[in-house]
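Meet today's protein:

…
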Amino acid sequence: MSYSLASRLNSIDALRGLAVLFMIEQHIIYWLCASLRSSQLIQVLGAFGGFAAPIFITLSGLGATLASYRYETFDRLVITRGIGILCFGYLLNILAPNWFAFESWYVLHIIGFGMLLFPVLKRFSSPHLVILLIIVLIATVVIQTSCKIPLSLHNKHMSDPNLLLGFLQYALVKGYFPIFPWISFFIAGVLSGRWFMEKKIKNVLRLAMILLFSSAILSAVYFIGPEFAIRGVFVRVFRVGPTFYPSLMPMSTFLISTALFFILGFVFLGSRINFKSSNLLVCLGRLSLTFLMIHIVIIRESAIRFHFWRSFSTLDTLLFTLAILIVFSFLALFWRRIEFRFGAEWLLRKISG
C-alpha cells in the first residue's frame, strides 16, 4: 500500500472529520432529546458518537509521529502545540461552566499532555511502546481501585471543583479522559504512525486484532459470571459497562482496537480514492478543534441558559441535529476558501511556528 504522505495526511484529516460528525451528532442528541431511549436510531447515533474521542486521541498520536518525520526540530514544535492545546482545554472549561469546572480534564487536556510526552515516547522502540501500552492499562486498574473510583462516573464526579487533590486527581484518574487509561490511546497512535512510515501496516492490524480479542475474552468471562470477575479487586479487569466513564479494561481495549480499525479503513480508502483537500470530511477534520469549541460553547451553554435542555421530541432532535451538521459542513467548506484562517488550528500554527 504505497501512496504519498500528503494523501496519507488527507486520509487522517478525513477520519478526523468523520469523528467531528460523530461528536456533534452525539452531543446534540444527548443535550436536546427529552427521551434518549425513545428510539433505536437515537441510541445507535449516540453509540457511534462514543467513537469520536478515542479516534481523536489516537489520531493525535499518529499525527504527531508522522509530523516528526517532516520536521528536523519537531520536539520544540510538539511541546509548544501541546501547551497550546492544554490552554484551549482550560479555556473551554471557562467558557462552558455549566459542564466543566476549571480543573476538569477533557479530551483536549489528554491530547495536549500526549504531545508534551511525545518527545519521550518517540525514543522508545516499538516493542517497548507496546509494553508501555499494556502497563498503562494494568496500572489504570490499580490506580482506579486504589483511589476507589466508582464503577460509574457522572458529570457531578468529573466536574466537582472540591476534590481534595484537585488538578492531579482529575488528570490522573477521575477526569472525563484522564491519563490512565487514555494515554494508551495516544501511544497506540504513535505506534500506528511509526508502522505506517516503516511500511509495516500489518503490525497495526495485528495490534487491533489482539486488543479486540482481549476485550472479547475479558467481556465473555464477565458475562459467564465467576465471582472474581463480577466483584472484588479484579472487577475492573472484566466488567462491561455502557459508557467509558470510567473506561475499564474491556472498554479501553475495545475502543483502542476500534480506533485502529477506523484508521486502517481510512488509510485503505485513501490509497484507493485519494482524498483531496477539498473533500468535505477533510475540511471538517482540519477544523476539529475549532468546531469542538464552537459547538460546546454555543449549543450546550445555550441549552442550559435558555432552558431547552433535553426538551425536544425525538423527531425534532433528529431534524435539528441534521440541520446543525449541514451548517457545520457548509461552514467547513467556506472556511477552506480562506485557508482556515482565524480558527483555533490556525492560531496554534501561528503560536508554534
Notes: Residues 59 and 136 are 18 Å apart (CA to CA). The chain has 17 helices and no strands.
